[in-house]
Amino acid sequence: MKETEFLQSEEWLKFQEATGKETVRLSSDGFSANGILYMLPMVGKYLYVPRGPIAGIKYQVSGIGYGMERLIEESKKRRANWIRIEPETEEMLEEIKKELETLRPLRQAQGRPEEFEGRQAQGDNLSVVKAPHDMQPRETFVMDITPGLETLLAQMKPKTRYNIGLAEKRGVKVFATREEKYKQAFLDLITATANRKEITPHPRAYYEKFFTDLPEETCQLFVAEYDGKVLAANLLITYGTRATYLHGGSGNEYRDVMAPYLLQWKQIQYAKERGCTEYDFGGIKTVNNQQSTDNGKQKTRGKNSWEGITRFKTGFAPGTQPTVFPGTYDIVLNQSKYALYNRLRLFKENFLLMKKFFKV
């Protein structure tokens, strides 16, 4: 299993269970597919495997049929009507498609006759289709932080480096904390940022669970304070050798002191101190792909909604190429339920468009 993907970690599954979700754990011989079950009105359950499945070298070379067959079996046991996956590469996506087209019990190939005795083929009528929208960003920006701090600063865009220095000169203070007043300030900033960008955030209680159900060594709150006021705050996840900027918010006041720049820089320094070699800024958009989320309750609106955040993040490592994923795909197990899901989804989208147009 790739020990940098927090969304496939045991910690993330336990966090989801704390929010009331049912989870699935599947791991054997280099294949891993940890998932979360979601219940939708009228259409029932689907299993979401965020940033997965993950396959080691053995499976990438010899195929992943056995792992996918087990995933399908587990999903059917839980009465899931489709499986939503996010393969790491185009090659893995194509391998999954190929395996599902010809999926049969692998008695001889895998050497497990006792596990397949008497079973029927799982994949005769399966289809793999592009999901209506991507659950996670198609592009993420992961920075190598193994060089020294001076080197990292020198590699930044001049404006980014200047803004970090400006924030320090103005007296912006950045620190990690779990103090209650700062947690509440973070939640207020999440709401303010969502309103400003016209996106729908998670419920407030969801963010609060990060503090109650994840330990400080995994999840840390960083705040940037100026003149006694919290200007920006971020949740930073540390897992394996990677630190990930997961959620953040900022206000409109004192934007000229450039607090978010110093906030990210201090988080990078913290990650290095913890022994991390990578810093994940999260989603960006440098190519024309769909960027929206379903279970995360976050959807971008507007053609240029990613331009500012992309420019901000890439300024820290302009020589770094983004990581590009194939996107989100659905393995359809129940064709009629999936068709109903798409009809209801289109009806809802059209209703919301009409409501906005007529300002009901």
Structural write-up:
- By secondary structure, this protein is of the alpha+beta class.
- It has two domains: 6-135 and 326-350, Gcn5-related N-acetyltransferase (GNAT) (Aminopeptidase); 139-324, Aminopeptidase (3-Layer(aba) Sandwich), CATH 3.40.630.
- The chain has helices at 10-18, 57-62, 65-77, 90-101, 107-110, 113-116, 149-155, 158-170, 180-197, 204-213, 259-273, 307-314, 335-358, and strands at residues 22-24, 27-28, 31-32, 35-40, 44-49, 54-55, 80-85, 127-130, 139-144, 173-177, 219-226, 229-239, 242-250, 278-284, 323-324, 329-332.
- The strands form three sheets. It has a seven-stranded mixed sheet. It has a six-stranded mixed sheet with strand order 1-4-5-7-16-8, sandwiched between helices.
- Helix 11 (259-273) links the parallel strand 13 (242-250) and strand 14 (278-284).
- Helix 8 crosses helix 11.
Short account of what is shown:
This protein has 360 residues and is α+β, with helices and mostly antiparallel strands. The chain has 13 helices and 16 strands.
Q: Would you tell me the structural class of the helices and strands?
A: alpha+beta
How far apart the termini lie comes to 49 Å
Strand arrangement in the largest pleated sheet:
10-11-12-13-14-9-15
**Integer average pLDDT:** 87
Determine Rg (CA atoms, Å).
22 Å
| Main sheet properties | 7 strands, mixed
State the helicity in percent bands. 25-40%
Overall tally of structural domains: 2
CATH domain class name of the largest domain: Alpha Beta
Shape verdict: globular
User: What is the succession of H and E elements?
Assistant: HEEEEEEHHEHHHEEHHEHHEEEHEHEEH
Strand content: 15-25%
The CATH architecture name of the largest domain reads 3-Layer(aba) Sandwich
Looking at CATH, the homologous superfamily of the largest domain is: Gcn5-related N-acetyltransferase (GNAT)
